[in-house]
């Protein structure tokens, strides 16, 4: 995080340091808006069944240890404030998910009770009427075959069968356009924010390792370093429950694609911001936990993108059935 805000240095700005600052600022913008798409998706769906609570809780632990490490290492106040913001945002999303899960579980229990009462009261008349149509309804899988045949026939015309695919393409195009515009504005906001901070001298290039005040080059406290590694492990492990859930359900319904795109953008630009600042060995080792946590999760995000692509059509087919 120390690549995002640097104060009190008189070092001359170099292209690498400028890129480090821009990437760090874009990463900051991505993290600030990261959870907003999933909050909106949950609100629109009125449900949080698509997202794994284990994913959110492990991520929350990662943000807590990140905050503790920032406090222990004595990082600049802006970094600590951001760590606090991340914890609050995690808490809000977890609370929303728990609320929707509770409300929907309660509603399902009520519907099940009403359905059980209705079935018991209508059981005898249905059995009498069912004896006349038992030739059709008694065949296992007959409903499934009829529904699949109807979908394949498309009402007898190939033209009607192609209509769902046309109507499905339009929402997908709109979604990708919306996501592209959102990413553009996040990148623009990060770049403009860095330019304003640079012009107002709120952001200044940090000196290379070994230059300037010797106090600035003292190694990070061991405890803070350990917390950083714990945070990295949590970030790496958090997505595994979500990947397993998507694979088990064979669906990404209820997940916001923009949420994971912003995560990928934030991780990529954060790692780039660190590496563009310096490749000096001690600096690299100091930031290694955060590099592992940021760049390592990109591979897991890629797996989730593959799941979005693989299960997208199947999810819509299940919903249409």
TrEMBL record:
It comes from the Eukaryota. This is Uncharacterized protein. It comes from Coniosporium uncinatum. The lineage of its organism: Eukaryota, Fungi, Dikarya, Ascomycota, Pezizomycotina.
